[in-house]
Amino acid sequence: MRFGTLDGRLVLVKDGLALDVEDGSDVNAALGRFDELVAWAATADFTAGKAVTDAELGPPVPHPRQVFAVALNYRPHAAEAGFQAPEEPLIFTKFPSCIAGPVTEVTLPPGKPDWEIEVVAVIGRGGYAIPRSEAWAAVAGLTVGQDLSERASQLRGTPAQFSLGKSFPGFGPIGPVAVTPDEFADRDDIGFECRLGDEVVQHGRTSQMIFPVDDLVARISAVCPLLPGDLIFTGTPAGVGNRRNPPRYLQPGETLVSRVDGIGEIRQTFR
């Protein structure tokens, strides 16, 4: 099942058609009844659907209550950043006001704006202290994300200001849809890549994560109850701009395209 939002309402998306979900005006509440949603989707009649493009879709979850993110979750990225691979997940937050849809224009703040492609887990029923063996059942779907980061703000001070530097308006684009884990041949091994203009700047597979999705769900929920519609940005591979020689940062007029196999792509143009 593939789901997203259109005009702020939850929709199912299939073959270019968007089918409105009954009581879909509260996306988080609908995701909290995820088993009911899946059962309804199995018999849904898409002849009543509306033709839709990715550019018309909003973020699969427009108003998440919690947005978690994971630093250094791929060994090559940890190495390029000058760190040892962590023994425990390094969790921070992107503030929910940064969440945006799949095709957007982003105003670049002063400083050193950078890119980080991520596979994002969308929480469905959620829960507290979820065992790892049951963690995938708490995930409604996976979507494409960018953890856009303004490095000057992020690294200012001791300790660094991770969350502020990653939460400017538009710095959390996700979409175009979220795809339920059962749709993937292997939900733990999904390919992805990020292009800046014509150059592939990042690529990887989720099987390269240090802490996989189910492990993250179990570890985070051991502290914070996961709520329907919460997001987990699961980490980025090597290839970010600030670790290049010389460093490279996003510029007005550039376009960043991020793609995840089996889901689709998001596109950000910068001004």
UniProtKB/TrEMBL annotation:
SUPFAM superfamilies: FAH. One of its GO terms (biological process) is small molecule metabolic process. Residues 67-270 form the Fumarylacetoacetase-like C-terminal domain. It comes from the Bacteria. Keywords: Hydrolase, Metal-binding. GO terms for molecular function: hydrolase activity; metal ion binding. Coiled coil: none annotated. Belongs to the FAH family. This is Fumarylacetoacetate hydrolase. It comes from Paractinoplanes tereljensis.
